[in-house]
TrEMBL record:
Residues 636-693 form the DUF4982 domain. Keywords: Glycosidase, Hydrolase. SUPFAM superfamilies: (Trans)glycosidases, beta-Galactosidase/glucuronidase domain, Galactose-binding domain-like. GO terms for molecular function: hydrolase activity. It comes from the Bacteria. Residues 275-428 form the Glycoside hydrolase family 2 catalytic domain. PANTHER family: BETA-GALACTOSIDASE, BETA-MANNOSIDASE. This is Glycoside hydrolase family 2 protein. The lineage of its organism: Bacteria, Bacillati, Actinomycetota, Actinomycetes, Micrococcales. Residues 166-267 form the Glycoside hydrolase family 2 immunoglobulin-like beta-sandwich domain. InterPro entries: Beta-gal/glucu_dom_sf, Beta-mannosidase-like_N2, DUF4982, Galactose-bd-like_sf, GH, GH2_Domain-Containing, Glyco_hydro2_dom5, Glyco_hydro_2.
């Protein structure tokens, strides 16, 4: 069998009727290379149907087309297409005839083409997709994840979940490797084949092997099991993400053997209320981040290098776990989590039978949930990074005895498919009793106003103390009792007030903060570290995302006080990292709270907002920036926040001490200051018991500004998920960031690559991401280049009044993997 990327040679257009085609009125389409988001390049507008939830992007229906040249010799083969994700309500047609559908926009699925192909001819493939008021965040639309072409013998290893590996018994001397291979015979005769598996250690040495025969009846599946023993196993962990490989070979069928390479890890998981979560026998507290699926300026398009970059930067910021909110994680991100050592809570759905948007997945859930759960587990099974399956997010049915039975079905289905991980659910007690609360508070002006402005998020955010009272009330306790009881780990969204209550009333219960307010991390982390039964905290959110705009913004008194940000707000602005990957001050505060940072961090509130009254919501952080370069008059009042785990912070300005304040007098891990602005060097010195333990300094940038351009990689292989990230900053010649002199920057790309996206982390903007000019935000902008062919790529960066900078990278040909060996016949170009 060969598994070949099937991402080139596609075109897309707005969906039109067949009558428009006949009359010649339809768009002929635009050539593209997958993955592709059909919406990110469309014009936003204030009256878009998606509203604040969808970042004011338009909706639409789209169709994708390509041609597959099928040679005569494939008549005896099995041919299939694997779609990693199509948003949404995908309809697949082959040669004009319906072949498959998939309502869930996040589910991977395989379409057998065998009964549709014309051999020795070109075959047309068409995929329809649409998005319209079906999501609470920016979803994008189209074939936004990769597609693969499978060509194999009629007897073959099943494409999706065909190899499943577990390590049921592990000690220091050896690990038991249990492999189950599902072999499908889609032919018309009984056949026998031989399966040989070799286990390779992280250094690619063969450390175990097994050979077994299997006979499969026609039009049937057979499961072959092999048990092997690896000596002195290297265990996968966050700090040592050691990956083994299983190279499985199916042969004896008369043609080329089928080879499947499966990566996996050897590790053990344990759970109890006294030790919490243990990985390889050691207790691990989850420093978690909730993340959405979009890739910022790339939109929803899923590129392997973008997914890996997100995980790498999140881990560098102190996180050791991510929650995929609220849908199954991409295969590329799962691979990155395995390689980099990031734990995963993978999630099924944002809704069950109760819709949250007018046309969302609830319409398909009763019929499709089981197949979608199967697809998620099949995709996750061999990934050591996955430790938790979440069956939902803030599901209203969790507070209803009848509705909660869906949770039982979901949990038991997952356990049937995979009993090696733990099952949780992101339960919000407030949402679980929302209908009862609405009846109790019916006619209350505040409730009606909040519901109109921002739905349940507004109610949660604007009535913080009231929400806590509801969370610990007997109403929530009784309503969620059954939904909590069916889980291995009780996930609580914004339920930190219940953590200690659960230990008293349910001593066998394990709890995780599946979604928490970033503004509470100091208190929440104390609850996590102080209670063995609480295994971690997942902040909302780790990486800024498109949609749910302005949830975390600072609300100034002279601006709209509505829960959502008005157009042109673009992102949530509730995250530690902005959508280009730049860390915000809240990220350094969190790192300090986690105990991972001892160096003090200086954050300065933007002086242009000095004196303006404002409010911060529970998802908000102040508008501070780590800079001492401001375009204001000398002596202007400045407010500073210094984050530290020390006792005191001393501020020194140009060598003289100007202030010394205790840490934690107003907020844990922070010292506040106000002083007049003076250019030069500002230093924060941390003291514990009177002794200096660390210091950091900010310096005013000079007016000699240059463009600083850094590529994340100078050399890369040509593959579909490959990208080059060019981080562009305004700095002076001493390397100091110039954050208060933003300007437009232009990027030109020539040679073996093209500009895929260009933008900044600015959360409210009318600028597009598909143009070659974009303004900096706080002195930064990001260009993303996609390689097109082997050879050099030259990137020219320019800005008004500054000298242009030219940098280059080299794109090299990638060697074929065993699963991508050339197949007979012509592949799409």
């Amino acid at each position: 069998m060969t598994r070949t990327p099937f991402n080139t040679g596609w075109s897309y257009r707005r969906k039109t009727s067949i009558f428009a085609d006949v009359q010649g009125q339809a768009d002929s389409g635009h050539s593209i290379r997958l993955p592709h988001d059909a919406i990110i390049g469309l014009e936003r507008r204030a009256d878009a149907p998606s509203g604040a939830a969808g970042a004011y992007f338009p909706d639409g229906a789209f169709e994708y087309r390509t041609v597959l040249d099928v040679p005569e010799e494939w008549a005896g083969k099995h041919v299939a297409l694997e779609f990693e994700g199509v948003y949404r309500d995908a309809m697949v047609y082959v040669n004009g005839a319906f072949a498959a559908q998939r309502p869930n926009g996040y589910a991977a699925f395989v379409v057998s083409l065998d009964s549709h192909l014309t051999y020795g001819a070109e075959n047309t493939i068409r995929v329809d997709a649409r998005a319209h008021q079906d999501s609470r965040w920016y979803s994008g639309a189209g074939i936004y994840r990769e597609v693969h072409l499978w060509v194999s013998d009629r007897m073959h290893i099943l494409e999706q979940g065909g190899i499943r590996i577990t390590t049921p018994d592990v000690d220091f001397d050896r690990a038991v490797i249990s492999l189950a291979a599902t072999i499908r015979n889609s032919g018309l005769t009984t056949r026998t084949a031989t399966v040989t598996t070799e286990i390779l250690d992280p250094e690619s040495r063969v450390v175990a092997s097994e050979t077994s025969p299997i006979t499969v009846l026609p039009q049937s599946d057979g499961i072959l099991r092999q048990r092997m023993y690896v000596p002195n196993p290297q265990r996968w962990s966050v700090d040592n993400p050691a990956l083994y490989s299983a190279r499985t070979r199916l042969d004896g069928l008369g043609g080329e053997p089928e080879i499947r390479v499966t990566h996996f890890g050897i590790r053990t998981l344990q759970l109890d209320p006294d030790n919490g979560l243990r990985i390889n026998g050691e207790t691990v507290k989850l420093r978690g981040a909730c993340i959405h699926h979009d890739n910022g300026i790339l939109g929803a398009a899923t590129f392997a290098d973008a997914e890996e970059r997100r995980i790498r930067l999140l881990k560098a910021a102190g996180f050791n776990a991510v929650r995929s909110s609220h849908n199954p994680m991409s295969a590329a991100m799962l691979d990155a989590c395995d390689r980099l050592g990031m734990l995963v809570m993978d999630e099924t759905f944002d809704m069950w039978t109760e819709a949250k948007s007018p046309f969302d997945y609830a319409l398909a859930f009763p019929e499709w949930w089981e197949r979608d759960v199967e697809a998620m587990v099949a995709g996750d099974f061999n990934h050591p990074s996955v430790i938790l399956y979440s069956i939902g997010n803030e599901i209203p049915e969790t507070g209803n005895p009848i509705g909660s039975q869906w949770g039982r079905r979901l949990a038991e289905k997952i356990r049937e498919l995979d009993d090696t991980r733990f099952v949780t659910n992101g339960i919000n007690g407030f949402v679980a009793v929302l209908s009862e609360m609405a009846l109790m508070m019916q006619g209350t002006a505040q409730v009606e106003e909040d519901a109109a402005d921002g739905g349940v998020n507004a109610l949660m955010g604007d009535t913080d103390d009231f929400m806590d009272q509801v969370m610990v009330s007997p109403l929530v306790t009784d309503a969620t009792a059954e939904s909590f009881a069916l889980l291995d780990v009780v996930g609580m969204n914004y339920g930190d007030v219940r953590y200690e209550l659960e230990a008293r009333e349910h001593p066998n219960r394990i709890v995780v903060g599946s979604e928490t307010f970033p503004s509470r991390i100091d208190a929440n982390w104390k609850l996590v570290t102080g209670n063995a039964h609480v295994i971690g905290d997942f902040t909302w959110s780790g990486w800024d995302y498109l949609g749910e705009v302005g949830v975390g913004r600072v609300r100034y008194e002279d601006e709209s006080q509505a829960f959502d940000g008005e157009y042109p707000w673009l992102t949530s602005w509730s995250a530690d990292l902005d959508m280009t990957g730049s860390r915000r001050p809240m990220s350094f505060y969190r790192e300090t709270v986690f105990g991972l940072r001892t160096t003090p961090y200086i954050a300065v509130r933007r002086p242009r907002n000095h004196g303006r009254s404002f409010t911060l919501g529970p998802w908000s952080w102040t508008d501070a920036v780590s800079s001492w370069s401001w375009n204001v008059a000398q002596g202007s009042p400045m407010i500073l926040e210094v984050y530290s785990d020390a006792d005191e912070i001393e501020l020194q300005l140009n060598g003289r001490t100007v202030a010394r304040n205790p840490v934690g007098s107003h907020r844990a891990f922070a010292a506040d200051f106000e002083l007049p602005y003076e250019q030069g060097e500002l230093t924060a010195v941390a003291f514990v018991a009177g002794a200096e333990v660390g210091r950091t300094a900010l310096r005013t940038a000079s007016e000699d500004i240059v463009l600083d351009v850094r590529l994340d990689k100078p050399v890369l292989e040509l593959r579909d998920g490959a990208l080059i990230f060019a981080e562009i900053e305004l700095r002076d010649r001493d390397g100091n960031l110039v954050n208060d002199a933003d300007r437009p920057v232009t990027v030109g790309v020539s040679g073996a690559g093209s500009l895929a996206a260009f933008g900044s982390g600015r959360p409210a903007t009318t600028e597009r991401f598909d143009q070659d000019t974009h303004g900096t935000y706080d002195g930064r902008v990001l260009a993303i280049i996609r390689p097109d062919a082997p050879g050099p790529v030259e990137i020219t960066v320019s800005a008004p009044g500054l000298a242009a900078v030219v940098v280059s990278a080299e794109v090299r040909t990638r060697a074929a993997t065993p699963e991508q060996a050339p197949a007979t016949g012509q592949m799409p170009s």
